[in-house]
């Protein structure tokens, strides 16, 4: 099968799975990649998106995380109170763990690009069939939730 046709079929399969799972993020991602792929400058844009996209995504997530500070919803006293509870320390530790693991993950992807196939498949399955979300800070939050719940702690 022609490699160009195979990539289109693979993207259509991802889109079909996303539609079946009613996952809007993955639907938007698949359609966006397909639209860019159809454009004449795709050969320049796709490698740039591949190499810089994770950093752009982290930047967008970071912006979203900082918005409650900008709106005044989160204040310095909230930051101070985090250090006063075991649940707060667990959240800090999970955030650090995810950041460090992500660094090694990026290194792993660079060293073994074939791992990307398994990661993409696993992420798609987790997002579509288990209603997961593909995002680092959200993973840290989920880890925190699990540990805090297991220990019967709260943030107060």
What does this structure look like?
The chain crosses the membrane at residues 53-74, 86-105, 111-130. One of its GO terms (cellular component) is plasma membrane. This is UPF0756 membrane protein IV66_GL000154. By secondary structure, this protein is mostly helical. The protein has a domain at 75-156. It is 81% helix and 0% strand. The chain contains 7 helices and no strands. It is elongated and about 60 Å long. The mean pLDDT is 83.
What is the approximate shape? elongated
Strand content: under 5%
Mean pLDDT: 83
Number of strands: 0
Largest sheet: none
- The share of residues in helices is over 70%
Q: Span from first to last CA?
A: 59 Å
* H and E string: HHHHHHH
Provide the gyration radius in Å. 19 Å
* Alpha-beta classification: mainly alpha
Oligomer: single chain
Poorly predicted runs of 5 or more residues: none
Number of alpha- plus pi-helical segments: 7
Describe the structure using short key phrases.
156 residues, mainly alpha
């Amino acid at each position: 099968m022609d490699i160009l046709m195979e990539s289109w079929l693979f993207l259509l399969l991802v889109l079909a799975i996303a539609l079946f799972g009613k996952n809007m993020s993955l639907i938007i991602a698949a359609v966006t990649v397909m639209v860019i792929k159809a454009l004449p400058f795709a050969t320049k844009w796709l490698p740039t998106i591949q190499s810089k996209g994770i950093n752009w995504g982290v930047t967008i997530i970071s912006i979203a995380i900082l918005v409650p500070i900008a709106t005044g919803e989160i204040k310095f006293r909230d930051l101070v109170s985090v250090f006063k509870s075991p649940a707060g320390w667990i959240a800090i530790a999970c955030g650090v763990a995810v950041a460090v693991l992500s660094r090694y993950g990026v290194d792993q992807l660079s060293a073994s690009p074939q791992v990307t196939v398994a990661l993409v498949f696993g992420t798609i399955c987790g997002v579509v069939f288990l209603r997961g979300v593909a995002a680092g800070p959200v993973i840290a939050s989920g880890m925190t939730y699990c540990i805090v719940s297991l220990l019967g702690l709260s943030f107060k």
